[in-house]
Every structure is written in structure tokens, then in C-alpha cells.
Amino acid sequence: MKQHISVTRDGHVATVVIDRAPHNHVNAALIHALADVLDACDADPEVRAVVLATEGRVFCGGADLTGDTPLVDEHGESETPALYRGAVRLFSARKPIVAAIQGAAVGAGLGLALVADFRVAAAEARFSANFVALGFHAGFGISLTLPRVVGVQHASLMLLTGRRVKAEEALRYGLVDQIAPLAEVRAAAQGLAAEIAANAPLAVEATRATLRADIAEAVRQRTEHERAEQDRLMQTADFREGLQAVAERRAGNFRRG
Questions:
Q1: Sheet with 164-166: strands ordered across
Q2: CA separation for the pair 257, 236 (Å, rounded)
Q3: Checking CA distances to 128, which of 38, 138, 153, 165 falls within 20 to 30 Å?
Q4: How much is the average pLDDT of 81-94?
């Protein structure tokens, strides 16, 4: 999956770009490849901040968990635990990350956006934790990371309605830190990253570590719970109905079963 990730550096800012157009879906292999890239940025003393961006109209349309059976890795393990181990690795990155959000960030795509310390978005950006519309439980640590960013009330509103939140509303929530014109989103994110990188790097990393505390371990514990709930709900008729309803672009006919 590393062929879908490119890295460039301008001064002390590394820009990491995912290109799996049109929807930039993520899977375990891509997330672990991204974690490898962030590990390399951590090891490079010339990199002081990272911009995370994607190509195309969609920032990330969610997890790529297609097929009749769960995807497996080389060890024969199902995709979800491998994906979530990758998420923990992303949250273990030591250097500040600014995400450039040009379009929809849905499901695991929202989780990916929440890995970043800051989010610069275009007015066209949309944010959605649409798990309940699928008869499913939130994953990727979102039930932990979203309330940390926007507060319990706004997170509950997003998680229990599954609604799409526009950039302006996301700015009011605190989910977005800055709105920029679509053509300038990445440059604006790079500008914010450069502002961070202009400071003493050891002090920045130490302050960030204090602010984020034990977030990687907290995400590990939360994803274990999220996965257990997902496994349970995947056995229900409501989950099967949710998948079909989303595929058919209609409201679900849920029966609590």
C-alpha cells in the first residue's frame, strides 16, 4: 500500500498524501503503511510537523471492508483488529499533524482526520460518523477521540444521529480549526504546520506529549471495546438491513433485531 502514499518536505514540514481515488478508502495495509511513514517522519530530525492530505474530491470515504467474508492479513487474522492496531500506531506518532480536509470524511475517514492535532477544511468538507445508519457501533477509536475534540454533547449528536456535519458547523464544534478555499486547503494546512515548526522542536514535542497524554493506549483499549460491540451487532438483522439501506440510498427499516 505504500505505492498509494507520497511524501514531500518543504523546510521542516513533511506533507504526506494518500492517493486511492476516488474515495481514498482505508484498510489495514494502508493504515500500517501510513504509520510506517509517520514513524519515518518521527525519526527524521529535519521534520518538525506533518501535513496529512489526500487526493481527489473525498478526504476519506471510510474503511474498505468489502467482500462476503472479512478480509484477512498474512497471518489469517480478520481485517478489523489489524486495522485498529494500525490506528493505535497512528496515535503513537510524536510530531504534530495538521490534516487538510477537502471533502467528505466519513466513518473511518473521520477517525483518520481525528488522528491529527488540527484540521484545516474547505467549505465543501463534510464530516460524518454514520455508523448507526448501518446498524453498527463506531470504531477506529472515534467514540473516544471525537468527544476529546468536540465535547461529549456534540459527539453524541454526531454519533447518535449519523448526520453529515458541514464545515461551518464543524468549525463551531471545534472539529475544524480553520476554513480555507478549496484550492488553498493544503497550502493553508502547510502554513499552520510551518507556524508550529518554527518553534523549538523539543519543546513542541514535549508539550504535545503532555496534551495527548496516554492517547495511544486509550485508543487501544477503546478499540477493543468498539470491536466487541461491532462483532455483536454484525450478527443482527438490523445490521444487514442497514447495509442494504445504505446501498439502496434509503432510510433503514430497523426492527431491533
A1: 104-106, 126-128, 164-166
A2: 6
A3: 38
A4: 96
